[in-house]
């Protein structure tokens, strides 16, 4: 399975993030819990970059792990303002990859944690399909799962509206 193929902690975190954003993480809850437990208890993260630290922090917090905030709120707010300004400048310069450009525009509009999960999954499926590192098996699975869930919702709606 693809989860076992991801051996590096950052690769595992990115896979978990993709599974969540694609709306299929509920199929892999045990595997995700095992990976996050391993990452939480393992201290190999001393040399991580900002991206890896932020991803690790967000995913562990989302799954209920007690991850202390090392950085104060005021510093985080200044960092958010700085990165937002920098990202907007890069967008204006049009020097980003098209897929990254779309992702940045989307992130600047509304934070991920404010979005509706199924709508975000539908949007992210289209973006994931265009990525060069896209996993075709995962993509087919995600599309099938999305369509099954949609059909179930439509069936339930028909039943309720009778």
Automatic annotation (TrEMBL):
The keyword Transcription does not apply. The keyword Magnesium applies. It comes from the Eukaryota. Keywords: Magnesium. Residues 7-70 form the Terpene synthase N-terminal domain. This is Terpene synthase N-terminal domain-containing protein.
